[in-house]
Amino acid sequence: MAKLKSIFVCQECGHQETRWLGKCPSCGEWNTFSESIKEKNDRGGSQDKRFSLGEPTNIGNISAQDSERIITGISEFDHILGGGIVPGSLVLLAGPPGIGKSTLLLQIAESFAKSGRSCLYVSGEESLAQIKLRSDRLGIKSNKLLVYSETNIREIISRIRNLKPELVIIDSIQAVYHPDLSAISGSVGQVRGCAEEINYLAKSEKIPVFISGHITKEGTIAGPKVLEHTVDTVLYFDETKDNIYRVIRTEKNRFGPADELSIFQMKNTGLEQVVNPSMMFLESRPVGAAGSVIVTLIEGSRPLLLELQALVTSTNFSMPRRQVSGLDYNRVLLMIAVMERILGARLENYDVFLNVAGGARISEPASDLSVIMAIYSAYRNKPVDEGTIVIGEVGLAGEIRAVSFIDRRVNEAKKLGFKTCIIPGGNLKNLSSSKIKLVGVSTIREAVRLIDG
């Protein structure tokens, strides 16, 4: 009879030890050892416990029909998955406790079951009565939705193989445990061992599986970074500063584009999808206010319009303040330095505050020109026309460089009723639009002239 034992493997270099070490003796990294299962055979040798899913096959003979996507019925969730659920995929939904992971997963299960497909919802944290209370609040009633309260991964897999549902949801991965491991539930070894079992089940039975995972204070998945490598898709669940909206970002997707974004609103009846996020971020925009500029960024394949606000006031201290929210701090300092050098703006005597409205974050350089325009507008106390959006990357010499996906950005502005787009001159040759005015600029001097008139 084969016996199972644990080993510890460095996640950086693969070095193995029989016990946990704080520092890897091979690569020198700290806290990289993770518990893994090894199988000891009767002859005294040992081998990794791994699974085989078939023989080597010529890639030209493989049919891709099994990868046809399954629609959940929640369009915004299908969007971040790349168009729907891929059969046999393992999807991780990670987020801080209490943000609404279980609520969303239960809504997905109901929407999936409404289409006539069977779904098994496994909860390791709640009893059946607690799940029923949530389902009553959400108004969920479906004969195709089965709920099961269990924490033993072997029992869960046995039930799945017997029932053969078309979708499995396990809430959460930190609550289940592997009976062959002595570590407590939620530890690195337990989470990794359970995830490997679930992954093999999903691939061998062609059953899509969703698992939820908690996030630590540092913003990482509780227990394992290795879990991100095991799953096919990683979705991060976060909230805006006002705690009203929930933002889901795709951090990894083997079957579609990464960095996709969808927004939901938490209500008494559950999470409601926000179909037009740009309108949500712009609904409270002040009219005729200096320092307010609209910028278009690309989140995955989706264009998104955000309001950038700047406030410039004279300082009372020898060192002026630079406070930034929602933007890269060092990038903003770089833009301020370019303004002082190229435009001659005496910002060393002023405090500069920058904020992205709605609690969103901007990371792409296409927002450089909007940062300069917002600061300059607040500095001169002259508002930018409210029907104008600003797009462009700025170099150290004050030149404005072309950006990618300019057609998507301009079309989104046109759809929301904006009249003018200030864009890099290098992007003009790729656009032709009669419904929106395109203004090409090559330097920041040309751009700020549009404010000065």
Characterization of the model:
The radius of gyration is 26 Å and the shape is elongated. It is of the alpha/beta class and 453 residues long. It has a 9-stranded mixed beta sheet with strand order 7-6-8-9-5-10-11-12-13. The protein has a 4-stranded antiparallel beta sheet with strand order 2-1-3-4, covered by helices on one side. A 4-stranded mixed beta sheet has the order 14-15-17-16. It has 11 helices and 22 strands.
Describe the structure in brief:
By secondary structure, the protein is of the alpha/beta class. It is built from 11 helices and 22 strands.
Relevant terms:
single chain, 453 residues, alpha/beta, Rossmann fold, Ribosomal Protein S5, domain 2, 3 domains, nine-stranded mixed beta sheet, four-stranded antiparallel beta sheet, 28% strand, elongated
* Mean pLDDT over the full residue set: 85
The CATH architecture of the largest domain: 3-Layer(aba) Sandwich
CATH superfamily of the largest domain: P-loop containing nucleotide triphosphate hydrolases
What's the helical proportion of residues?
25-40%
Q: Please give the domain count.
A: 3
| Poorly predicted runs | 40-50
Topology at a glance:
Elements: E1 3-10, E2 16-17, E3 33-40, E4 46-48, H1 75-80, E5 90-95, H2 101-114, E6 119-123, H3 128-138, E7 145-149, H4 153-163, E8 167-171, H5 188-205, E9 209-214, H6 226-230, E10 233-239, E11 245-253, E12 261-267, E13 270-274, H7 277-282, E14 292-299, E15 302-314, E16 322-325, H8 329-343, E17 350-356, H9 368-380, E18 388-390, E19 393-394, E20 400-401, H10 406-415, E21 420-424, E22 437-441, H11 444-452
Parallel strand pairs: 5-9, 5-10, 6-7, 6-8, 8-9, 16-17, 18-21, 21-22
Antiparallel strand pairs: 1-2, 1-3, 3-4, 10-11, 11-12, 12-13, 14-15, 15-17, 19-20
Helix pairs in contact: 8-9, 9-11
